[in-house]
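Ticket #4471: structure output looks truncated?

Reporter: J.K.
Steps to reproduce: submitted the chain below (340 residues) through the standard prediction queue, then opened the result file.
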Amino acid sequence: MPGSTVRYRVRAVAADGSATNPSSEVQVTTLSAAIEFTGDLYPGSEGNDLSIGIARNGSTRGTASVRLRIMSGSAEPGSDFETVDRLVHFEDWQYYLRVDVPISRDRLLEGTETSTAVLSDVVGADLGSRTSAQLQIRDSVTGVGPTNLRVPRITDTEITLQWDDNCDNETSYVVERTYGPTIIGSKTTLPPGSTSWTDVGLLAGRTYAYRVYAVRGDLVSDVVYSDSIETAPGSGKVQVSTVSLSFGNVRVGSTKQLPITFTNTGSVPLTVVFEAARMPFILKGDFGTLVLSPSGSGRKATIKVGFRPTRKGTVAGELVVITTALGREAFRIRLTGKGT
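Returned output as attached by the reporter:
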């Protein structure tokens, strides 16, 4: 038996069978056997097997067994990994065993979780010094990240994104917009469970790209990227505050001014050109051409039209406006006033 002491009595015998000298005693101690873990830490990841090594050091003669249990920790048996509480057996001359523990793949952002494996109840050997070891399970961010990012709607100023939600415990989703290879500072945080988002206020005919990921605290899932997406070419639209100006009664030789406001309500820059109004109607200031942007304060401009009668009586005229919103077609604003 391993680790036991055996005594033998030895005596020399002549050829005729007679003893030639007194017997002597020999004491022999067999090698002991110790069963223990091969390491202090066994790492694994979700969706794979975690391998635990158990060694029988010293004598490998005969059979031996030991009980292997995996205890609860931040990783739980049954949910995070297969429950293990069983005897493992060493055959005669066998010095090493490997136990593979299946690790579950879930839909949670959890970070790294741990548990403890323990050896006990050894038979046919002793327990070694390393009777417990830590199991370390790395989270699989790939399994919980959004997938199937798609673009169901594109206009000249908006892009709608949709994706599949594969996470069950995220605290938010994040969508980052890029322009070319550079993030331009557009980062939007969405509620948990979100599966779509519309980016608004974009420029017509421009190329954008996006990336989407789930977040829980400091944990971030795998990231899904969009292809380059180009907004529609866009269209020009102009809104005019009035289609006619009535100056009413104005004393001959004096001037009365009235405003007209032009607003770009389209998605592309807009040019507005004015043909000179004929006397007694006049444009005040240098308003030969206006360029209106599709957004911001530059999308709106106001000009002033004056009426300076040179004689008494009713006068009618028009202001001719040409804009790229109408394919450079002209429209007219009616002007009326009366000199008194």
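Triage note (M.O.): checked the attachment and the full token line is present. The mean pLDDT is 85.
Status: closed, working as intended.
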